[in-house]
Amino acid sequence: MENFTFHNPVKVLFGKNQIAQINQEIPKDKRVLIVYGGGSVVKTGVLQRVKDALENEVVFEFGGVEANPHYETLMRAVEIVKSEKIDFLLAVGGGSVIDGTKFIAAAAMYEGDTWEIVKSYGSVVKAALPIGCVLTIAATGSEMNNVSVVTKAETKDKLFFGSPFVLPKFSVLEPEITFTLPQNQTANGVVDAFIHILEQYVTYPVNAKIPDRFAEALLKTLKEEGPKALVTPDDYDARANIMWSATMALNGILATGTPADWATHMIGQEITGLYGLDHAQTLAIVLPALWKFCKADKSAKLAQYAANVWDIPSAEEDVMADKAIEITVDFFESMGLKTHLADYGLGEEIIPHVVEKLRAHGHVNIGEKQKITAESAAEILKLAL
Amino acid sequence: MENFTFHNPVKVLFGKNQIAQINQEIPKDKRVLIVYGGGSVVKTGVLQRVKDALENEVVFEFGGVEANPHYETLMRAVEIVKSEKIDFLLAVGGGSVIDGTKFIAAAAMYEGDTWEIVKSYGSVVKAALPIGCVLTIAATGSEMNNVSVVTKAETKDKLFFGSPFVLPKFSVLEPEITFTLPQNQTANGVVDAFIHILEQYVTYPVNAKIPDRFAEALLKTLKEEGPKALVTPDDYDARANIMWSATMALNGILATGTPADWATHMIGQEITGLYGLDHAQTLAIVLPALWKFCKADKSAKLAQYAANVWDIPSAEEDVMADKAIEITVDFFESMGLKTHLADYGLGEEIIPHVVEKLRAHGHVNIGEKQKITAESAAEILKLAL
């Protein structure tokens, strides 16, 4: 078991009718900018419920944050924050809206070129506006962590940053809000959360039993409840179990004493940045290919995963590892996620471009053993054709 | 799945050589009172390591906090806090020292009769001195929660209070510190943590899959690693897995969306208060008796526990429940904890006294269904003879 620091002060308000409580979480008389996305929160009435709850605050709105939020869009929100003297940000949306709000919070208090926030991985951030969240999709876990992913549309650079200053003060998780999600978004969310767990779990054994077993607990829950939510979108317990799993998947608990991979995310992010595929779509393509490429290094944990999550009967480690990869691909496909680049009309021609971006971003020597070079990424992408 | 609020801002520094970091966690020039227990931290050198780390602070010491810390002792520390203008408390010890430090932190800033802090269950607490912890035994989980148990020696009242103001700012968890614990303290700690989990897990099903599976993860880890630590006290991974399990057992994660019992604790506390048994000893006596008494209400979860934690082959629910009770008793006994009042020379004569204390403290209609009356407590104690 490795040393670790765990610190997650985000307050989670979970269940039915939680939005009404946000008034107690935001100090009176704050000038609040509500940040949201494409308008589904208007249609579903969630935005109105939020505004109704903010009885004692001065409320402004900024809509139109796109999936994989654009730096250019977010900088327009920063202008409003400054001109309207906003002192609290309330993200109402999914991972993209929350990630975007984290960037706005840091950029509004940063002197200088705000792209440095992202380029420095967040190390230049020394202050940020306070943030609250009302989550509308179970997926990224952004509602309970300090990470944000932002895309510069101009250069197609999709990059993450992290800072304790952008940790939300609170996050409202109402499973019922997710009843009306389009099926593909539900599926994307489940697969995204599933892969967040795998990135922290399928590495090599260090005898850290709690993160291992917690990872297995969350994976089993998502594999059971994910399909239910597709068939019965208003199954409250399925939605609640998925939502809390997705949050727990990336709130630091699974990183308590274990190594982590994250190479699938690094490679997948470049594909989204360049070709616009959904985040979860890229992960479902890259992960199985990466596992095939790194099987020797990961076989002990792949076998453990096969046994403990999928109840694969005991066999040789290598056989178990193969079965783990196979059954994971089947699960993604059963959720409606494709697992090959060709499924999206992409072929070998993309490989040099993805590799070039990885090199430009310094994302080489990645993975839990820092062994995945730019050349390995090219090999992995070949396995993903 | 039930609604819940989760909020735990305690920073955990876990692993080897973590004490050196506390200097960065306590603001410079603070006047720090180190609170400790019976002197084992002097012998083991832990106290010296802590003092060496506090380079930029003014350090005072208060030793002699007993197991089940006495109000009377803690009030002497409050005097020192006031006379020396202490503005940071550093608990170096186990659950009793940390609980005591929480009381000192609240009492030092409370005007009026400080026993009201306990009598009000903490509701009168509106401020407290900041607290840090260096944990020396894996057991109570006090290092990552807002609860404290204090005993008034004069009246033999052992009572808990809770307040967000007494949450530690940070807790240092070094598994190596626990290598030198006496075997009975290691065993007490494992059983205490085990029962903290059971109090939140063995109630009735509400389809909250994450706290259920997390509980099972922690229980399995403790049942595997507990015996190892008794045989090989310096097994680092065993100690580390136990330590993180005990902290996770009572940091709020297991209460996310589930009912909780806590009647075993309520009854056990009166026995410690009146007769001085160790906390874990009383729990190991009361829990199996309470389960027998409440079997009909708890059988679904007892059967789930038997299957998922102890791999008991599937059978009728009632049979599974009986086996769950039996195997739990065997586990406690194998760890060296006795499970009957008679093992400590106590008999039927204690029952009216325990029941009287429960009544006096308003601890009637307890348990997850508020069904355990004073009369039921008497029946439970009969089953524990």
TrEMBL record, chains A, B:
Pfam families cross-referenced by the UniProt entry: ADH_Fe_C, Fe-ADH
Keyword terms of this UniProt record: Oxidoreductase
Record-annotated Fe-containing alcohol dehydrogenase-like C-terminal domain positions: 186-384
An example Gene Ontology molecular-function term: methylglyoxal reductase (NADPH) (acetol producing) activity
UniProt cross-references to InterPro entries, sorted A to Z: ADH_Fe/GldA, ADH_Fe_C, ADH_Fe_CS, BDH-like
Keyword presence, Transport: no
Alcohol dehydrogenase iron-type/glycerol dehydrogenase GldA domain span: 9-175
SUPFAM superfamilies (alphabetical): Dehydroquinate synthase-like
Cellular compartments per GO CC: cytosol
Entry cofactors: Fe cation
Listed PANTHER family: ALCOHOL DEHYDROGENASE YQHD (PTHR43633)
The family this protein is said to belong to: Belongs to the iron-containing alcohol dehydrogenase family.
Protein name, entry field: Aldehyde reductase
Species annotation: Shewanella mangrovi
